[in-house]
Amino acid sequence: MKSYLIRRLLPFFVFMYAVEFGFTVYMLAANYEKVDWSAWELVKTLAVMSLTTLISFLYMMIPYVLFLLFLPRKRQNGLLDKIVSVSFYGIFVYVSLFEEVASLVFWDEFSAAFNFIAVDYLVYTHEVISNICQSYPVIPILLAVLIVAILAVSFTCKYLFTNMDAPVFVKRFSHVAVYGLVCLLSYATVDISDLEIGKNHYNNEIAKEGTYSLFSAFLKNELSYDGFYITGDDAENLEILQDKLGGKNVTFTSPQNGIRRFIRSEKPENRANVIIVLMESMSSLFLNENRESWMRLITPNLSRLSEESIFFSRTYATGTRSVRGIEALTLGIPPLPGMSIVRRQNNENLYNIGSIFKAKGYENKWIYGGYGYFDNMNHFFENNGFEVLDRKRWEKGEVSFVNAWGAADEDTFAKVIKEADKSFAAGKPFLTMVLTISNHRPYTYPEGRIDLKPKVSKREGGVKYADYALGKFLDDASRKPWFDNTVFVLVADHTAGASGDAEINLEEHHIPLMFYAPKLFEPKRIDMPISQLDVLPTLLGLLNFDYESRFYGQDALSPDYESRFFVSNYQKLGYVKDSVDVILKPVRKYSVEPETVAEDIVRRNLREAVAFYQQASDWVHNLKE
Questions:
Q1: Does the N-terminal or the C-terminal CB of the chain have fewer CB atoms within 10 Å?
Q2: Distance in angstroms (rounded) separating the CA atoms of residues 398 and 447
Q3: Whole-prediction pTM value?
Q4: Residue-wise pLDDT tens digits, 354-368
Q5: How far is CA 81 from CA 10, 66, 76, 260, in A?
Q6: Burial class (CB in 10 A: 0-12, 13-18, 19+), 256
Q7: pLDDT in tens, 300-345
Q8: Rounded to 10 degrees, what is the CA torsion of 20, 24, 26, 29?
Q9: What φ, ψ does residue 303 adopt, rounded to 5°?
């Protein structure tokens, strides 16, 4: 006898699969130049799409399966059956269509299927919903989805019912038990990291069904390094790290203290003020020197400052989110799989940039034009030696323009200057960290500042306004008595995107880094690759500080510096040295790009990558004060 349960579920699955198949074809076409179109890669893409769609379907249908289990046989095709079945089908159709629209919105921002970023964003509903409403015509989109759903249900709901007699309860129960076992088996045996069976980022991400990706991320948004990645001997790891992090003026304390070491300077200490501007989504691509000839020039100030600063032209961000940039600049630690330490539990009282400056008498301040509960930023900074001054703590009248994420960059920089004046008046040197906002969707900013209209020009307008606000800030600061003794660190948190056909696209981690202090440093350009982790120790080296280091970065201006950098993309951890990228993956796998590299170089980079990431995974022990 044909399965009654399968027959009742079949219309739901056919609709869901048809929608998902159509969405996959559309995404492949929309990313035509970036997708791998070889026959085998397309087969794998469609196979993963089919598997993830089936798994999502099984879980989504659990409520309806239970309804069919307990529906009395005599009520089959009756009024109750029709009301519940059509209603559930209508909700199912609408949710399926809505999920595709939401996937498009997420893809537009991250060029990826739903991941733990989407899970994080669900926590911050006010900012995210406001951002979406200001960036997209939400009401028309929802109405369009509703109309399509109503039409789809009207034409297909007749297939929900069958003349087959429902089995007796015992048989129905046995069928449902098998159904449940299949669900449990899929949960236990299928992991989203195992489904990235190709090397092309776009094929891998397009293949993942959205609902499956979202719930997988919800359940698996933090991974134990030791449990999922290649590991090495602890003593050998430490030996490698002490070799890589050592140098002429470096003294390690003891083997029990791991990488803790004392760094001394041969020059007199300079307790200059420091303002670190963490620039939202400011890719190096936006600098004049990197843009194609036909592209609009949108960073006149940053491009000019690159010639007036100590400019590291090949700096690479560790990750793809602001919290990764914060983590790199404050803790100097490689990006661990899953959530940033900024968002993890037990991240209080860590040894960080604030610890060093506070011990030297500085006033440490974190300034943000939005609400710092987002991404746990306030908690992290408040419990690690900083006074927090997010928008909630600003005084009345300090915000002149605001969007979904917070105050315009001009307002934020005005607040930075105001707080610097206070510290200077009190005779205190200051360390200020500030995160900008305006170069972020929905790209709205005050009218009349630049020649590009907000929202119409979108990203280009956001970049050019952010550049304008930065130029105005430095111009305003130059008239202050503290300016001549202040180091401005201008560095991006991450780029405007981190996708590409490679597993980790290195150029999509390429960010600007400038140390601007016209009265303190001569301009200089350094073209060797360095890591975002190196910003902190390079700054301390420029100030000639003697200090204890627990950081994995190094002073990029030191003669002992060895060029290498760290990048990450969700669960993949990259280590790049001599243009060879070793990528560590869950389930103790790794890959190498390019593939045609001598085996001895691969082994060397792999051992160093494992040493850095494995030792850094014990961050609580390493960083707790």
A1: N
A2: 18
A3: 0.78
A4: 999 999 999 999 999
A5: 16, 13, 6, 68
A6: exposed
A7: 999 999 999 999 999 999 998 899 999 999 999 999 988 899 988 8
A8: -170
A9: -65, -40
